[in-house]
Structure formats: C-alpha cells, structure tokens
Amino acid sequence: MSNQLRVRLVTPERTLFDHAADSVLLPAKNGFMEVLYGHTPLLAELGAGDVTVHTADGDTRLNVNWGFVEVLPDRVTILANDALKPEEIDIPRAEKQLDRGLEDWKKAGESEEAFNEALRVISEAEAKIASAGGTIKSH
Q: Which of 63, 69, 87, 126 has its Cα between 20 and 30 A from that of 29?
C-alpha cells in the first residue's frame, strides 16, 4: 500500500498536474495548508498563491487563483479558476493588474463589495508577480 496522495490540479481549460505526491502545500482562502496522506476529508475555498507539490522527483510549483480544493485521505483535487506555471506568467500584465487593483481600492469608498473586489485583484496580481520571481513595487 502506497502512502502517497494523488494530486490533481485542474482549471476549466486544462489539467496542469495529475500525479502521485508525498504532500501538497496550497493557499486556502484564510491561509496556507499542507496536506499529507491520510488527511481528514475537507472542502475548502482556494485563495491566490502557489501550490507546491512535493514528490520523490522534486517539487512542482503552480500559481493558482481562487476556486476550491477537495481533500480526501488518499487524494487532493484542486479546482482552480485559473492556474499557471511560473514561466507562463506575464509580469508586466500582472503589474498592470496590480495597479488597476490599487486604483480600484482607492476608489472603493464605503462600498464593501468594491473594496473586497479590489483586494481580490490585488492579491491575485501580487501572487502572480511573486510566483514568477518578480518584485512587487511599493505604492
């Protein structure tokens, strides 16, 4: 009997990862969590950031943005709205997204919905820039 997880990361467009792994570290909406074989079943909302899959062959890192993760004792299924390999991230585009989010945040005023949407855009852009190895400019 193997003590490995089956980790699958899918988006509406493609499957980015589908392999056995020793563990997976992923961004839940309220913080990072690590999943090992035998984990208690759970369903969590996915945040923005890097998923790191640890295998015998090394680590695989993928940037995800929102969605859900289903954890079962022997498998993890990550359903992401968007996911990219670090080399696929367009840093100038992510920087423009960050600028747009910061502008929206300044304009949000008293609207909680507008404020939360701006924070979502900022978090997503910052996660992409960090994943690609870029530097986040201070504003």
A: 87
